[in-house]
């Protein structure tokens, strides 16, 4: 079994809870309250900024030039392409700026940044993988469910269910598998732990948005 197959098995219960979340079920049907989606998009804009920098840092730390280039492209994509989706939604909602990072987003970005900066590079790569893989799985899952007519969240669904995104996800998976097979058992175990933590934080990010969870 490859490391990524093992890691995905380890998060199976978390992934199951993610696809059952009301945030995603309602987004898929187009019935999600705009206030909740708006909160999510604002938080995600902040997330992408930090996440893009964590990806760039992993690119700088990657041993193989090919992996460095892949992570730099992921970083550019997070900072430029995905941000455009957010900007278009922020414009639709008439929101001029991104606001502050609320608890779920704050926790997630700082986990990713500290892991990318201070842990072995393989562990940093494992920590960012759920961001790709869970979004692809969720995008595919929603794209396969019955389509709601004129869903206001269709642009979001198309971004993550699309084939172009699938290529990046397969690349990130392949890099992690190569890194895992070239490292020690101890580092592989730490990679799995980081992958699980990031998956929990993905759950919490949607949960925080659904509950409009803010600093007290
Ligand atoms: C909380 C949260 N997690 C994952 C993504 C998806 N995502 C963000 S950047 C990137 C890779 C480079 O484009 C991917 C897949 C998101 N938007 N928000």
Overall pLDDT metric = 94
Summarize the main sheet.
none
Run of helices and strands: HHHHHHHHHH
Which CATH architecture would you pick? Up-down Bundle
Structural classification? mainly alpha
Oligomer: single chain
**Over all CA atoms, what is the radius of gyration?**
17 Å
Under CATH, the topology is which?
Answer: Heme Oxygenase, Chain A
> Mind telling me the CATH superfamily name?
Heme oxygenase-like
Please give the number of β-strands: 0
Bound molecules: the ligand Cc1ncc(C[n+]2csc(CCO)c2C)c(N)n1
Number of helices: 10
> Unreliable runs, pLDDT <50, ≥5 residues?
none
Distance between the termini: 45 Å
What best-fitting shape do the alpha-carbon axes yield? globular
Helix content: over 70%
The CATH class is identified as Mainly Alpha
Pfam family, one: TENA_THI-4
GO molecular function, one term: thiaminase activity
Domain Thiaminase-2/PQQC: 8-211
Function: Catalyzes an amino-pyrimidine hydrolysis reaction at the C5' of the pyrimidine moiety of thiamine compounds, a reaction that is part of a thiamine salvage pathway.
């Amino acid at each position: 079994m490859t490391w990524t197959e093992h890691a995905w098995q380890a998060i199976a219960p978390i992934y199951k809870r993610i696809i059952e979340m009301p945030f995603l079920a309602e987004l898929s049907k187009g019935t999600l309250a705009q206030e909740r989606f708006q909160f999510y998009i604002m938080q995600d804009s902040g997330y992408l900024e930090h996440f893009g920098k964590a990806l760039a840092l992993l690119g700088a730390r990657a041993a193989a030039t090919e992996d460095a280039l892949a992570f730099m492209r992921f970083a550019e994509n997070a900072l430029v392409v995905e941000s455009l989706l957010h900007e278009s939604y922020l414009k639709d909602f008439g929101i001029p700026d991104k606001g502050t990072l609320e608890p779920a987003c704050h926790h997630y970005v700082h986990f990713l940044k500290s892991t990318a900066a201070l842990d072995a590079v393989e562990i940093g790569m494992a920590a960012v993988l759920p961001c790709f893989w869970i979004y692809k799985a969720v995008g595919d899952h929603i794209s396969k469910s019955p389509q709601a007519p004129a869903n206001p969240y269709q642009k979001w669904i198309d971004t993550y269910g699309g084939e172009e995104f699938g290529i990046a996800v397969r690349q990130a998976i392949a890099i992690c598998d190569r890194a895992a097979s070239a490292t020690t058992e101890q580092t592989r175990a730490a990679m799995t732990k980081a992958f699980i933590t990031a998956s929990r934080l993905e759950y919490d990010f949607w949960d925080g948005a659904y509950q409009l969870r803010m600093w007290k």
